[in-house]
## 1
Amino acid sequence: MQRIVVLAGGIGGARFLRGLKKAVPDAEITVVGNTGDDIHLFGLKVCPDLDTVMYTLGGGIHEEQGWGRADETFAVKEELAAYGVGPDWFGLGDRDIATHIVRTQMIDAGYPLSAVTEALCTRWNPGVRLLPMTDDRVETHVVIDAEDGGRKAVHFQEYWVRLRAVPPARAVVPVGAEQAKPAPGVLDAIASADVVLFPPSNPVVSVGTILAVPGIREAIADAGVPVVGLSPIVGGAPVRGMADKVLAAVGVEATAAAVAGHYGSGLLDGWLVDTVDADAVPEVEAAGIRCRAVPLMMTDTDATARMAHEALSLAEEVRV
Ligand code: FO1
């Protein structure tokens, strides 16, 4: 059985995984999920990217929105607002809140996030093994210009949701990453993988944060298996989200070739760009990364499954 490890952020990662499962239903897929987006609100621990993967693969996602629960209501949010209790810019729905209550209770009882995630997944049956990148607390902060002319750091969710990524990001800091350890199972899954995939997730705040946990990047580079990524940038703009804003913070151009160069040939063996970026192929290959141009729009699960097939066949091509 083919063993595939996928480093996933939120919506892009989750939708790619749905296509991958369709492409290779018998594969054993381990997902290493980003937890740098996690936020503590109203005494609850919220893990947006883990939940997006779990709900998407488990059939509970709000399809149009890409995050949160289908058939959601917001009574708790409205009641909190009536008390004047904020923040009011982050929409926690009633159904979603139940997940955060279960998670927080288990964490408070002493269970690590990896065990809690496994427990939550027994309800959703995502059909993959979903592991947080770490059980330790890592919080991505974005440094922006302050009103007084200096700089200030805000939580990633504040930058993304409240500020809509409008202020230029001067730096992106995964606070706590340096001290974090990979969650149980992460390094073993990488060591025994046949292939490692980077979905079209945000290269800075999703895949980049996972790679910032000491040991994960090294394990991938040393695993001796093909590592293939799919560009989240198509035609010079992110397919969705605001990846270009945070790419600027790390000095990387918002092009398919520049993102491949950012990961580098020490990590990536293969890179898929969209057909509109076919002229980027020679540049990526000159950097020592095998590159193909194929359609990369995840318009539906079948189109996404074809992307997953392309990634896996590129992995076979580069296998040494
Ligand atoms: N994104 C928004 O744009 N607005 C929200 O109010 C919001 C709430 C939210 C609640 C739970 C959750 O799991 C995700 C949520 N997201 C929301 C998405 C999230 O901010 C980001 O898209 C991801 O963290 C980036 O991967």
## 2
Amino acid sequence: MEGKDVIIDVRNAKKIYRMGQERIHAVDGISFTVNRGEFCCLLGTSGSGKSTLLNLMAGIEKLTSGDVFIKGQSIKQMSENKLSKFRQENLGFVFQSYNLLGSMTALENVELPLVFKKMPSSKRRRMARGILKKVGLGDRMMHKPKEMSGGQQQRVGIARAFVARPDVVFADEPTGNLDSRTTIEVMELIKEMASKHNQTIVMVTHDNSLAAYADKIIRIKDGHIESIEENANVKQAAGEAAETTDQTV
Ligand code: ADP
Ligand code: MG
């Protein structure tokens, strides 16, 4: 079947935090796979372990036990150097609080992942400009984060996450600080960016309505998987929308 290759494989992942005498089983034995090009949503209430799981998958937090494979490579086996190189080459991140560098312009922020890739400046400027135009910020490139709205800052965040064409983009509550209208715009943008180059998205949210954007919904409760749901309706609806568009052209 086309597009069914597994890109992320989470195997019995566990994370235990020790707080004095207490042991918190934040992620308590979670296994699932994500296929290439899939939009996967980790859905659950606050404190259920979503962010911890995302951070384990991205190699930001160390597993207590279990393993995570991305593109067949064990995150656990990698040295810090290897891991940071792997992240630069394969992963992108979108954060709830945008995490842009305040002293840099939108353009410089978006160029940053390409600087780490040691790309020549003319080429990286061209790529950063191109993607900023795509996210609708062609007229805000020289603005600094504090000179932009929340929605604009998150557009910069999305441009930065996608500019180097990573295979996987991780997003932790990317619309958590945005109003409902901007939330829809940002979600559509993430979906559009990812589908263009068959990139894989893993997004954390507590908002049930956002799960509608996902192909696969993984419900998390108390560090466990409650259910895994393939969202056929979304694909079907998207397909129908595309057909409708085709007919009008
Ligand atoms: P969510 O993202 O679903 O809101 P988290 O993954 O942030 O949940 O947290 C899961 C559980 O782990 C919570 O009980 C939280 O208090 C605990 N936790 C998260 N990070 C830490 C940490 N660094 N140290 C101790 N406990 C933590
Ligand atoms: Mg969280």
